[in-house]
Specification:
heterodimer; A: 112 residues; mainly beta; 6-stranded mixed beta sheet; 5-stranded antiparallel beta sheet; globular; B: 115 residues; 7-stranded mixed beta sheet; 4-stranded antiparallel beta sheet; 11 strands
Chain lengths: 112, 115
């Protein structure tokens, strides 16, 4: 299976704390993307990191990519209650043109 | 610029009926993707289409499922003779012409319930 895995499956933190989610994948990639999904809603694109990049920042988000370990992490700093959602990584494989392979997701709960 | 639009948002069908899910991509986008999400799971790729062409249907079940993206009008995902196992959220995404492995923009999804 090309499906990636994320850990933890669920994360519960207090507002103001940092949240770190990890993602592993199995094939070569062109890029890796992180999405957020609020309960019962569609996915919102957060950040994309290309296979030749190691780290990327966007606001309170920091993404790292280690292609030798086939893993990525998403860090959300100074979390807010509004960050409560499911977070998915998705990789665009080298030979799977157009197809995103999603991980199982991490459910993040931020308590006010 | 309106986002990706999907309708209906909720669809209830009885076993054996047909389900038609529609997706209008963002303006200017020529790539459309369909994904299925079962409860408590991540999204699974189904099919990737460009106008009048199926590019990759490796995730489509072999029977009862079909997809099209005609020259005019929305993309349609069609499920014939639905069964309870088809109950899921179906998401459509689109991306602009060019490198299709970049960001995909997702619609709100259609939640299909099969009774």
């Amino acid at each position: 299976s090309q499906q990636g895995e994320e850990d933890p499956q669920a994360l519960s933190i207090q507002e103001g704390e940092n949240a770190t989610m990890n993602c592993s994948y199995k094939t070569s990639i062109n890029n890796l993307q992180w999405y957020r999904q609020n309960s019962g809603r569609g996915l919102v694109h957060l950040i994309l990191i290309r296979s030749n990049e190691r780290e990327k920042h966007s606001g309170r988000l920091r993404v790292t990519l280690d292609t030798s370990k086939k893993s990525s992490s998403l860090l959300i700093t100074a979390s807010r209650a509004a960050d409560t959602a499911s977070y998915f990584c998705a990789n665009a494989g080298g030979t799977s043109y157009g197809k995103l392979t999603f991980g199982q997701g991490t459910i993040l709960t931020v308590h006010p | 610029n309106a986002g990706v639009m999907q309708n209906p948002r909720h669809l209830v069908r009885r076993r054996g009926q047909e389900a038609r899910l529609r997706c209008s991509p963002m303006k200017g986008h020529s790539h459309v993707y369909w994904y299925r999400q079962l409860p408590e799971e991540g999204l699974k790729f189904m099919v990737y289409l460009q106008k009048e062409n199926i590019i990759d249907e490796s995730g489509m079940p072999k029977e009862r499922f079909s997809a099209e993206f005609p020259k005019e009008g929305p993309s349609i995902l069609r499920i014939q003779q639905v069964v309870r196992g088809d109950s899921a959220a179906y998401f459509c995404a689109s991306s602009p012409p060019g490198v299709s492995t970049d960001t995909q923009y997702f619609g709100p999804g259609t939640r299909l319930t099969v009774l």
